[in-house]
Amino acid sequence: MFAFSTVCVLELKSQIAFSMNETVDTRGITHAYYERFSGTYVNNRIRTTKYTLLNFVPRNLFEQFHRAANLYFLFLVVLNWVPLVEAFQKEITMLPLVVVLTIIAIKDGLEDYRKYKIDKQINNLVTKVYRSSSFPEGGIVNVTVGDFIRLSCNEIIPADMILLFSTDPDGICHIETSGLDGESNLKQSHIFWN
Question: Of 25, 100, 116, 190, which shows the fewest CB atoms inside 10 Å?
Fold first, then answer.
């Protein structure tokens, strides 16, 4: 389960339908108003990676030179370029630093690539979002604030939600939140107006 700053609805009754030109809620919000302001919110895309292709080298070097050992070796390399203090050949002094920086950069790059693949897999998940009196399947990245979402049993909730309807007679829905808080116990959620 995921938690994002998007309002959605779980299990709308299939009989409930409204014209997109009519008022959507009691505050007088119309579809035109919704379309105008829904674009101002960020998308529902997940990005847990630390780097991009453009910022990998500078950002990785910046992080690596925050370590005292790397700064010490850099100091030795710079000091060895001074002719009065030169103890070894310049290339030999640079070798340990370059090897360490390269190994750590490769490790960080592989870790970030694994995160990228997981993010891509999650972003390609499908959910049913209310569009023009039906629930076509679309990616969870297209969920925006105010969307009505229909979920079935054992589906991942793509955003924060307000439960408006449940097929349970008591209006209850059980949610697993182990991805958020580590608890494997199911939590109960009740419908909004009950």
Answer: 25
Work out whether strand 126-129 and strand 149-150 pair parallel, antiparallel, or are unpaired: antiparallel
Total length of the chain: 194
119 CB-contact burial (10 Å; exposed 0-12 / middle 13-18 / buried 19+): middle
AA letter at 41: Y
- Name the CA radius of gyration of the chain, rounded: 26
pLDDT at 11 exceeding the cut of 60: no
Tell me the CA distances in angstroms from 92 to 41, 73, 86, 99, one per residue in order.
Answer: 53, 12, 11, 11
10 Å Cβ neighbour count for 59?
A: 14
Mean pLDDT value across the chain: 78
The mean per-residue pLDDT over the stretch 127-135 comes to 79
CB distance 33 to 186 below 8 Å: no
Q: Is the pTM of this model over 0.70?
A: no
Q: What is the DSSP string of 2-25?
A: ---S----SS--TT----TTS--S
Distance CA 11, CA 107 (A): 44
Three-state secondary structure call for residue 175 = strand
* Residue 8 · residue 159 · CB < 8 Å: yes
| Structural domain spans, the chain | 1-44+143-194, 56-120
User: Cα-flanking dihedrals φ and ψ of residue 133, to 5°?
Assistant: 65, 25
- For 67, list phi and psi in degrees, rounded to 5: -90, 135
